[in-house]
Known about the structure:
By secondary structure, the chain is of the alpha/beta class. The protein contains 15 helices and 22 strands. The chain has helices spanning 11-22, 52-56, 60-73, 133-143, 158-169, 183-196, 198-213, 264-268, 308-325, 332-355, 360-364, 380-388, 396-403, 416-424, 446-450; strands at 2-7, 28-30, 78-80, 83-89, 92-97, 100-111, 115-117, 130-132, 150-155, 173-179, 218-220, 223-228, 235-239, 245-249, 252-256, 259-261, 273-276, 281-284, 291-293, 296-298, 371-373, 378-379. The strands form six sheets. Strands 1, 2, 3, 4, 5, 6, 19 and 20 form an eight-stranded mixed β-sheet that branches. The mean pLDDT is 94. Bound molecules: flavin-adenine dinucleotide. Flavin-adenine dinucleotide binds at residues 7-13, 30-33, 38-40, 84-85, 112-116, 134, 137-138, 162, 259, 262, 265, 300-302, 307-308, 311, 441.
Amino acid sequence: MADIVIVGAGPAGISAAEVLCAKGLRPVLTDEGARAGGQGYRRPADDLALDMNRLMGSEAGKYAALHRRFEALRPKVDYRPRTLVWAIDGDQLRLLRDGRAETLAFDRLLIASGAMDRVAPLPGWTLPGVFTVGGAQVALKDQGCLIGSRVAFLGSSPLLALAAKQYRDMGAEIAVIADTTPFGVKIATLPALLLRAPRTLLRGISYMGASLRAGTQMLHGVTPLAVEGAGRVEALLLRDAQGRERRFACDAIALGYGLKPETQLADLAQAEFAYDPGFRLHLPKIDGLGRARPGLYLAGDGVRIGGADAAEASGALAAHAILTDLGQPQDIEVVRRLARQVERLRAFQRDLARAFAWPTAQIAALSDSVMLCRCENVTVGEVRAAMAKELGPIEVNRVKAMTRCGMGRCQGRVCGPALQEIVAAGRDGAAAGRLRGQAPVKPIALAVAGEPA
Ligand SMILES: Cc1cc2nc3c(=O)[nH]c(=O)nc-3n(C[C@H](O)[C@H](O)[C@H](O)COP(=O)(O)OP(=O)(O)OC[C@H]3O[C@@H](n4cnc5c(N)ncnc54)[C@H](O)[C@@H]3O)c2cc1C
């Protein structure tokens, strides 16, 4: 039995562990990755000799600081890398640790599981050579690989310009950065963004400036038409804001519409959810410190997208909540300051979600032949046919049962947001219902799931 378990050794989990260790506690810190740091501050294997200063740019100092802090923390926590939490049964975590099945009981659980890309399908998106933007970054930071030599970045996200800069710095040619949100919408959100987090805004603008200086084409307000290629990606076809069809030759595409919290573990841990119309996502309910229910705490991008600084502050905040619940009164000024910082940075991301919008109309207009669930080979048309049946499904879980959409290896983590929009069919996303989380939250061998705990 462990008193406190933290899932996720990114900025949120590391900060939480620091606060707990400072009070003499020794939490378990699990992460499925081999090295701590999480997604944004992902640490490459030591023998890769990647130039992280160049790759991280203006964030190199924060990157180095987090890894230094983790090294100082490491002897004080029960750190378990390569340990995937794939299910939660009551107060038991089911783990896959270095390929072996284990269980771990806990008193208090802090989930800081981070985020993943939100993707919208388009014709041809299952061709080899299409990656998510985050996946393209993982290939680079984790393995020192580029997804292609001439890469198109498509979607709507500040990460498009950032990832394109990282790829350019590492020698790739950028075919185009194509954003589906019109430029005018971005301009309209500038005052709000400037007010909340001017430094973060300037950082984002500098990535766009770097693209323009490098002569990279940046288009706004595009309509993606198709990924083309015989057997693998050869071109991206889109309609630009002026209504012209344009084809960009490329050998890889990085696709992404911002990030969505990884909430499956929170779901299995019995958190309650509410629909958030701003993000068009169902998100776990938490109080101001990150409590979801007695004994369950949620922090970082895994509960609300906020960026690395908000993740750190919310991790510390959740740790203060744990200490308070253990009967150790906390410095109210410290807690208030952290809460204000988290609130401001999450509000910034909420505005950002308007500047880089999730393309609901584009998804609603997808043709029947487009593949929606690539794990189970379910098309948009099959989902629409299921919805049209008499007494047919009215919400996502029934559609899933009838079509197997969202029932495959990714458990709806990839197709779920687009499925929600197809089922909502132009209505408020809440009308589609919430795709329930199921174990295993990530693919594992059947033999592991069947092993006695
Ligand atoms: C692919 C990707 C790339 C990104 N790149 C950048 C970037 O370049 N610059 C930038 O500013 N922001 C980037 N971001 C956003 C940035 O990651 C976050 O703002 C920040 O890292 C959030 O910190 P966190 O601690 O909440 O989560 P994370 O840093 O994501 O850490 C979560 C940790 O939880 C672990 N985890 C998740 N599920 C499980 C499980 N079931 N069992 C065990 N461990 C688990 C993960 O392995 C991960 O280490 C990126 C996000 C993603 C998803």
